[in-house]
Design brief:
- The complex is a heterodimer.
- In chain A, 20% of the residues lie in helices and 37% in strands.
- By secondary structure, chain A is α/β, with parallel strands linked by helices.
- Chain A is globular.
- Chain B is built from 10 helices and 16 strands.
- In chain B, helix 3 links the parallel strand 7 and strand 8.
- By secondary structure, chain B is of the alpha/beta class.
- The radius of gyration of chain B is 18 Å and the shape is globular.
- The longest helix of chain B is centred in the C-terminal third of the chain and has 16 residues.
- Helix content of chain B is 34%, strand content 20%.
- The chains are: A alpha/beta, B alpha/beta.
- Chains A and B meet through strand 4, strand 6 and strand 14 of A and helix 1 and strand 5 of B.
- Bound molecules: flavin-adenine dinucleotide (FAD), flavin mononucleotide and FE2/S2 (inorganic) cluster.
- Flavin-adenine dinucleotide binds next to strand 4, strand 5, helix 1 and helix 2 of chain A.
């Protein structure tokens, strides 16, 4: 169902990313997403970055719709529908490592708040890191990587993850971020026999599993995902290779 | 004998349930998935001559009793659809849905669908939200006659015409399809509809209006099939709001030889299996030995 929510506060996370808080009377699981409507511009998918009574979305400005969301202030309204998708399945008895790359950190942050699990935050550069302080409030072990070495480990999040998992044992890795990062997490974890859940992105229209716009190999990212498990990922031939544009034409990643 | 077996003209289906056009059928793998979930056939997304991205989002709205969509006929265009058809036709029966603005264009698309291995073509004469297409060509009897006869002349596979309920001349259009040599009529496409956001004081869909589907439209669809059955001799395929075996039974009793399911795939992608099982049980209990015996039962 479509609702309209009013923004109660917002904060700046990094040079291009902001978090917007609102009250929305829906139960949302970690890893689920919503469709956000900015009238006259677009309706786009956004992960829910806080799932309590006060909900939030964390938006990186990359184009017209995300730039329009960035202009919203306290008291402004936006259209919202959802929540959609399966979300992560988190088991208290598993030793969990949470990996977020870029704005993907926002989608997995609720898992760190809930469980206090160890976390890796990856970004290109120091000024693109988001939510590090918040992660440290909930988790004892937060490790940061930057591609250019301006903060924390110099290298990417997967290189850092590989280093950590040789030193400490984990049962499950959950991750959200650029597809290339997720692809290498899948490769590394398959090799080391560690279970994982990855949150994927494809072009969404209906968001609920009808139109077929977001499919990968017949699986609907919006309704069968966006989170896929280690048993499912190897069957997705399009993962890490190709995606479909709004007309359905396959394009190489 | 399999009681669910049914015929649409020369076409034999192992069960009467098909996946409706526009639902999980834009890619080869999606269609394979629908066939594997128990659909007797899959109708492709309506495909045109050239690539289209469709309307901007919001193109879809969820309501308590259905959905309103204005996808705007997105698709890769007929040439870009070849590879998807190759994948899909290996897994089962595929019906190629096409849209065009002229009879000649329809005929060209139909020929390609036949070459790609489609078991039949379904002419989209009924989409309510794409300018110059769909119901804009499908509510004029002369145009419909020209389209159907030209397509019939250019392919050997059966030709279905999918009609819109957004007209008072539904049965006249149905008769026109029959006179022009059409092999079956599919009814109904979505009902033209609009949703307004009071807070934003504007229609929600970027296209302003779209088409209503889902449970809300079932009685409209059942009535349409009932009316068509009284006037036509060619087979009918019922579609609109089917969520369960009893919805499907209503359409069959109104006169349909087969049915299609669209929106209900949201709640359960394996819905065909459920409907098939329910129908089989019902037919056994109430003594219908075949779909043919049950079709039109509400008229007797
Ligand atoms: C399940 C899911 C969760 C997401 N969560 C977040 C999040 O928490 N924070 C965040 O900043 N971004 C998130 N995104 C990405 C976000 O949806 C895009 O950045 C946004 O749509 C861009 O819109 P734009 O108009 O600003 O840019 P545009 O210039 O219109 O598009 C830029 C790129 O964004 C992507 N995009 C545009 N429209 C869509 C669409 N309808 N569906 C999917 N991708 C689209 C395409 O890859 C496109 O090339 C998520 C995407 C998905 C699928
Ligand atoms: C998202 C969506 C896309 C659709 N696309 C098409 C299409 O491309 N061609 C067509 O003939 N009908 C299309 N339809 C209409 C359906 O095939 C069907 O006629 C209608 O939805 C009623 O059936 P239902 O209530 O079971 O969904 C579409 C419907 C939906 C919901
Ligand atoms: S966005 Fe329509 S099926 Fe996923």
């Amino acid at each position: 169902m479509s609702d309209v929510v009013r923004i109660i506060s917002y904060r700046t996370e990094s040079k291009d990313t902001k978090t917007f808080e609102f009250v929305w009377n829906k139960n949302v699981r970690t890893g689920q997403f919503v469709m956000i409507w900015i009238p006259g511009i677009d309706e786009i998918p956004m992960s829910v970055s806080s799932t309590k009574d006060v909900k939030s979305i964390t938006v990186k400005a990359i184009g017209e719709a995300t730039a329009a969301i960035h202009k919203l202030k306290e008291g402004d309204i936006m259209g919202i529908r959802g929540p959609y998708g399966n979300g992560f399945s988190i088991n208290e008895n598993e030793r969990l490592l949470v990996v977020g790359g870029g704005v993907g950190v926002a989608a997995v942050m609720p898992a760190v708040r809930e469980t206090g699990a160890d976390m890796i935050i990856g970004a290109k550069s120091k000024d693109e890191i988001i939510m590090e302080q918040e992660a440290r409030r909930h988790s004892k072990n937060v490790w940061v990587s930057t591609d250019d070495g301006t903060h924390g480990f110099k290298g990417n999040a997967v290189q850092l993850m590989k280093e950590r998992i040789t030193e400490k044992e984990y049962d499950m890795i959950i991750a959200c971020g650029p597809e290339i990062m997720l692809y290498h997490i899948h490769k590394a974890c398959d090799e080391l026999n560690i279970k994982y859940q990855l949150s994927l992105e494809r072009y969404m229209k209906c968001g609920i599993g009808l139109c077929g716009s977001c499919v990968m190999d017949g699986m609907r990212v919006c309704a069968d995902g966006p989170v896929f498990r280690n048993e499912q990922i190897p069957m997705l031939k399009e993962f890490g290779r190709s995606k479909r544009d709004p007309s359905g034409i396959k394009i190489d990643l | 004998m399999n009681p669910l077996e049914t015929y649409i003209g020369p076409l034999k289906l192992k069960n009467p349930g098909m996946a409706a056009s526009g639902i999980m059928d834009e890619t080869g793998d999606s269609m394979v998935r629908m066939l594997n979930s128990g659909a007797g056939a899959v109708v492709t997304k309506s495909i045109g001559s050239v690539k289209r991205s469709g309307h901007m989002n919001p193109s879809f709205i969820e309501l308590p009793y259905g959905y309103v969509n204005a996808m705007g006929l997105p698709g890769p265009g007929i040439n870009g659809f070849k590879e998807e058809m190759e994948t899909a036709t290996k897994a089962g029966m595929i019906i190629g849905s096409i849209f065009a603005s002229s009879a000649a264009e329809f005929a060209e698309l139909a020929k390609k669908m036949e070459i790609y291995g489609a078991s039949a073509v379904e002419l989209n004469l009924s989409c309510p939200h794409a300018e110059g297409y769909g119901m804009e060509v499908g509510t004029d009897a002369d145009i419909v006659h020209k389209i159907v006869s030209e397509v019939k002349d250019s392919v050997r596979i059966p030709v279905f015409a999918k009609l819109t309920p957004n007209t008072h001349i539904l049965t006249k259009i149905g008769k026109t399809v029959q006179e022009a040599g059409g092999d079956a009529v599919v009814a109904i496409n979505t009902l033209k509809a609009m949703v307004i956001s009071p807070e934003f004081a504007r229609p929600v869909l970027s296209n302003r209006f779209g088409g209503l589907s889902g449970p809300a439209i079932k009685p409209v669809g059942v009535r349409a099939v009932y009316d068509l059955y009284r006037e036509l001799d060619i087979p009918l395929i019922g579609v609109g709001g089917i969520c369960s075996w009893s919805d499907a039974a209503e359409y069959i009793m109104a006169g349909a030889s087969a049915f299609q399911v669209g929106s209900a795939v949201v709640s359960d992608i394996n819905i065909f299996e459920q409907i098939n099982n329910g129908l089989t049980r019902f037919m056994k209990e109430f003594g219908y030995s075949s779909i043919k015996k049950m079709a039109g039962a509400a008229h007797e």
